[in-house]
Amino acid sequence: MGQSRLAYGARQGQRSRPVTTSDSSSSVGSSRVASIDVVRGIVMILMAIDHVRVYSGIPAGGPTAGIFFTRWITHFCAPAFAFFAGTSAFLRGRKLSGKGALARYLIKRGLILVILELTVIRFAWTFNFDYAHFTLAGVIWMLGWCMVLLAGLVEFPAKAIGVIGLAIICFQQVCSELPRVFPESMRNSIGWLWEFIYPAGLAEPKGIIILYVLVPWIGVMATGYAFGAIMIRESAERRRLCLRIGLGAMVLFLLIGGLKLFQSPVRPGAPPALFRLLNQQKYPASQLFLLMTLGPAIALLSLAERWHNWLAGVLATFGRVPLFYYLIHIPAIHVAALVVSLVREGKVHPQWYASAPYTSVPVEYRWGLPLLYLVFVVVVAALYVPCRWFDRLKARRKNRLSQPALREPERQAL
User: Fold this and answer.
1) What is the pTM (predicted TM-score) of this model?
2) 366 lies in a domain?
3) 307 vs 29, 244, 266, 310, 314, CA distance in Å?
4) Structural domain range at position 338
5) What pLDDT does residue 32 have?
C-alpha cells in the first residue's frame, strides 16, 4: 500500500511539474524539426513521380505541358535532400558530445550510403547482378560522399561553412577549367577521378555512369549546414527568415533567369518562354537551378510549422524515414512496372530495365500520363504502411534509449 502511494505521488508530481525553459525549447525544437520532416516528406513523394516515369518509358521533359511538368516538379528533390541533410547534420551536432563526434557520424553515415548505392540500390533499379557492365553513381552516392566531405568542415564556424558552400555553388564552373593547369600526364592519370567531382571533358571511368557529381552538391549541403543556425532561433524569427530567404531566392531566379531568357535568341521551333525559363541545367546543377528549387523549399518551411492536420502527419511520417523510404520505393516501383507489363502485354520485360534508370522501353509500350499517375498514387499509398511501422519502431527505440535509469528506491516503489 505504501509503495502504491509512493508511486502515485511520483506520477502526480510529474503531472504537476511546472513548464521550464528547457520544456519550452523542446517544444520549439519539435516544431522546427517537424517542419523539416513535412517538407522532406513532400519532396520524397514527388521523387516517386520521377521514378515511376523512368519505368513508364516516358522521356524526361517533352513537348507537352503534362510531360514537361511531370519532370519539372521532381527537380525539387535532390536540392532539398542535400540542403536538409546539411541542416540535419547541424541539428544532430548539437546533441552530440562535440564536433569530433559529429565528424565521425557523418563519415560513417556517408560511407554506408555509398555502399548502399553500389549494392542494394543498384540491384533495386535493375533486378540483376551485372555490376561489371553497369553501375550508377546516383543521388545516394552523392549524398554519402558529401557527408564525408562535410565531416572535414564541421570544425569551422557555421557562418564560415556557409560562405564556403555558397562559394562552391557560385564558382562551380572553375572546376571544369582547373584541370587545364595540371600537367598532361597528371590529367591523363587523374582524369577519370576528376569526373566524379565536376565534368571537365576528361577520361570517364569505365563501368559506372556518373549521374551526380560532387560539385556543387557539397556546396548545397554545406550551405544547408549553416542554415541550421537559423533553424534554432525563436519560432517567429525563424519563420520570418525562412520566408525572406526563400522568396529572395525565387525573386533572384526570376530576375536573372528572365534577363538571360530575354537576351537569348529564340530558335525556330523553340518551346514556350515559360518552359525555357524553367528548364534549367540539373547535371551538374546550375546556380539558377538551385535558386529555382531551393527557394520554394526554404519558403515552405515557414508555412509547414503551422500545419497540424492529418496530411501534415502523413507527410512528416515519410520525412522521418527518408532512407528507409528510398530503399523500398525503387523496388516497389520496379515490381509495379513488371505487373503493369504483365497485365497489358501478358508478359514481363525485364530487359527494358536492365540498366535502369536508363530504361529502353519501346515507344509503342510506353505508358500514358494517366497510368503513370495511377501507379504513382498506388505505390505511395502502399509505402505509407511500412513507413509508418518503421517510424513507430524508431520512436519506441528512441524512447527506450532516452529514458534515464531509475534509482533503486524508485524501482522498488514501482
Assistant:
1) 0.89
2) yes
3) 15, 19, 43, 9, 11
4) 27-172+215-413
5) 62
